[in-house]
Design goal:
The protein is of the alpha+beta class. It is built from 17 helices and 30 strands. The strands form eight sheets. A seven-stranded antiparallel beta sheet has the order 22-21-20-19-25-24-23, covered by helices on one side. A hairpin with a 2-residue loop joins strand 27 and strand 28. The chain is globular and about 100 Å long. It holds the Pfam family BTK.
Length: 748
């Protein structure tokens, strides 16, 4: 039995943000922190006070986290980024909203006394006889304290208060993982109502000391148990009254916490077997109400997407995804009399097919759309077909300027769009063999079912439209409109590029609808593109005919067609890309300039690296030898976004490889990928050093023993949900069971 927590986060938009730039605008982005650890950075939206992000994330993490915070920042190319404000949502608030916390939340000013983090190791005890009793507080160490100084560390000391008396520890210089091992004693006052207070401060020579957090110990409770020892979370000082409430703008968020207790797989076998039996039996159920039908009829709009992806992953694990979708196709067709409405609603069949394409076809999507989308971003052409939106501009070189006419702009825009659409259709036409066999087989079954249900000649296009309604309208088109959300690009498009992508997506939708006349009636200004669209419709039909021409043996030979419990990552690359590497030698790490750029490739067997992707000579770290993958303190190398991989060499000795990423998102994606592929390693470490061993001591906690226990706990359980994650059959079964259990409760 295992307890798992996941946090779904959707950062929608902001409004009424204050201007931070001299232009009267801002360049806002969001940083998401879970317990003060940066996990996510959204893309920057340039020159706006009402940014729209629309970015979604899912984080898997231990159930012990306390809060999730959203910092809205203003990006500045010439100086440090400005903090606009923050929103903090505690775990208690999320627990009180099982369906998720959603809405607009006002940004608040950041109070330094509330920006605390970390834990402190204490022992509080009562000693002596009744006549002379003492309250003793032993302060051992602290970890993960806030970084208050420019060097990326703090100079912490402890102040212990009890009964109007104060004692202080020594100062530990340049450390967020200090060790004091000091003891403080006070005469115990039986009548005192004041709790013992342990405060941690950052010492400063020329300015006031910075508050790092505090812990209060109840000596009345300690008197009963005689002693209390352990790690205690540092708490902020009392919150100050908010005088700026609403003045910093607001943020629209959707946050949902899901806690699951997942039992061993054997407990779910009866449910899984029953579901599989129904799917194998096919659409003919002899009038019986089956579980799939029950699920179809009881899912609401707010939970249908989640249920759909759970079912898809469950049946992918059982090798029955095609059969499951075929059953949903039949159920949907039985309820549809008018072909024009087929698969146009957000039914369980539509959501399941949409989820299926995302889980199994994202690499295919990237291969097909990537070149054209990148070309649009790189060329930054001004494209507009709607006369009401055309911007007339000057063209020509110096001395020969003239005003371009509206018709010239539209004609030029049409040519550019025709070029993009033609390139994209050529790429699609060539992609038959690169499309995953499981997707091809599923489309073949869909094509066949629709053809059987609408055999009349007047409906001859319906079977093609059924395929394109998913492939073009629900897969290609959304990815073209929002390439950032499908990981096609790292940043959101600017206004000009976004308009071009929207027009291209509209063109693909029109091709998918296979009705150029209807599109012309709806948006007449798309007429200049109609000849190209008409030709593209013929090309799309030809492509679909070839796409569904697949033999059953081809499906059985693909990894997704077999009865496996994971996606086909065994022979594929899980993650790859350029990183800067430095592996520590005898005297410790050098400066950040010592990092060397190499190409890394992570599979389920090893992490390999070479000079280029095509290099024949490469080095590797076997995954079974990896003991931890963790972040490194910024001060260690004077650089951000550095991670360390701790692994055992051939002699069993622990070694460290330090890798620098280009941003916080890339850092967390690599950490997440490494943690997932090492999840079954038996010898993973429980603690590590977030610093480096430099000279004769660790930079983080100043320990002199290189091989001693780490000063911070590892974070193996923190990972990001990705489209290529291995399947988790037990979790998917638990989520389906929970849905059915909820249905049973409603029907009572």
């Amino acid at each position: 039995m295992a307890k798992r927590s996941s946090l779904f986060i959707r950062i929608v938009e902001g409004k009424h943000l204050p201007a931070k730039d001299i232009t009267g605008s801002s360049d806002p982005y969001c940083i998401v922190k879970i317990d003060n650890e940066a996990i996510i950075r959204t893309a920057t939206v340039w020159k706006t006070l009402s940014p729209f992000w629309g970015e979604e994330y899912e984080v898997h993490l231990p159930p012990t986290f306390h809060s999730v915070s959203f910092y809205v920042m203003d990006e500045d190319a010439l100086s440090r980024d400005d903090v606009i404000g923050k929103v903090c949502v505690t775990r208690d608030v999320l627990t009180a909203h099982p369906k998720g916390y959603s809405g607009w939340l006002n940004l608040t000013e950041i109070d330094p006394d509330e920006e605390v983090q970390g834990e402190i190791h204490l022992q509080i005890e009562i000693l002596g006889s009744d006549a002379a009793r003492k309250l003793r507080c032993s302060v051992f160490e602290a970890r993960d304290l806030a970084r208050k100084d420019r060097n990326g560390a703090s100079d912490p000391f402890v102040r212990v208060r009890y009964n109007s008396k104060t004692q202080e520890s020594s100062v530990v210089k340049k450390s967020c993982y200090p060790r004091w091992n000091e003891t403080f004693e006070f005469d115990l006052d039986e009548s005192a109502t004041e709790k013992v207070c342990i405060e941690v401060w950052d010492w400063d020579l020329v300015s006031r000391n910075d508050f790092l957090g505090k812990v209060r110990g109840d000596h009345q409770l300690i008197r009963t148990v005689q002693q209390e020892e352990g790690w205690f979370r540092l708490r902020p000082d009392k919150s100050k009254p908010r005088v700026d409430e609403g003045n910093l703008g607001s943020l629209q968020l959707q946050v949902r916490l899901r806690d699951e207790t997942v039992l061993p797989g054997s407990y779910y076998q009866p449910l899984v077997q029953l579901l599989c039996q129904e799917v194998k039996a096919g659409p003919k159920q002899d009038g019986k109400l089956c579980l799939i039908t029950l699920i179809d009829e009881t899912t609401t709009a707010e939970c249908r997407q989640e249920v759909a992806i759970n079912l898809i992953k469950l049946f992918l694990g059982q090798g029955l995804a095609k059969e499951f979708l075929d059953l949903l196709f039949k159920l949907e067709l039985d309820k549809t009399g008018e072909p024009n409405t087929l698969f146009r609603s957000n039914s369980l069949a539509s959501k399941s097919m949409e989820s299926f394409l995302k889980v199994t076809g994202m690499q295919y999507l990237h291969n097909v759309l990537g070149p054209t989308v990148n070309r649009v971003f790189d060329e930054k052409k001004y494209i507009e077909l709607d006369p009401s939106k055309v911007e007339i501009k000057e063209v020509g070189c110096s001395g020969l300027h003239r005003i371009q006419t509206e018709s010239e702009v539209i004609q030029q825009s049409t040519q550019h769009l025709q070029s993009y659409l033609t390139d994209l259709l050529i790429t699609i036409a060539k992609s038959v063999r690169t499309c995953p066999a499981t997707i091809r087989a599923t489309f073949r079954q869909l094509f066949k079912r629709v053809e059987e249900h609408f055999p009349e000649n007047k409906h001859k296009n319906v079977k093609f439209i059924a395929v394109t309604s998913f492939l073009c309208l629900r897969f290609f088109s959304p990815a073209i409109m929002s390439p950032k959300l499908f990981h096609l690009r790292e940043k959101h498009a600017d206004a000009r590029t976004s308009r071009t992508l929207l027009l291209l997506a509209k063109a693909i939708q029109t091709v998918g609808n296979m009705d150029a006349a209807a599109s012309r009636a709806k948006e007449g200004w798309m007429a200049p593109l109609q000849p190209t669209i008409q030709q593209s419709i013929s090309q799309m039909k030809e492509f679909i005919t070839k796409l569904i021409d697949i033999e059953e043996k081809e499906v059985q030979n693909t990894p997704l067609g077999s009865h496996r419990s994971s996606l086909p990552l065994q022979t594929l690359v899980v993650k790859e890309g350029p990183l800067f590497i430095h592996r520590g030698k005898g005297k410790g790490p050098l400066l950040s300039s010592s990092f060397k750029k190499l190409h890394f490739s992570l599979t389920s067997e090893a992490l390999s690296f070479a000079k280029t992707p095509s290099s024949k000579k490469s080095s590797f770290i076997t995954l079974s030898n990896i003991r931890a993958a963790e972040k490194v303190e910024e001060k260690s190398f004077g650089s951000s976004h550095v991670m360390q991989i701790i692994y055992a060499d051939e002699a069993g000795q622990l070694e460290m490889a330090y890798l620098q990423c280009k941003c916080v998102n890339e850092l967390n994606q690599w950490l997440s990928a490494l943690r997932k592929v090492c999840v079954n390693n038996a010898e993973m470490l429980g603690s590590y050093h977030p610093g480096v061993f430099k000279g004769d001591k660790w930079s983080c906690c100043h320990q002199k023993e290189k091989t001693g226990l780490g000063c911070d706990k590892t974070r193996h359980g923190v990972t990001l949900q990705e489209w290529n994650d291995p399947l988790d059959p037990d979790l998917e079964s638990q989520l389906i069971f929970r849905h059915l259990f909820g249905v049973r409760e409603l029907m009572r």
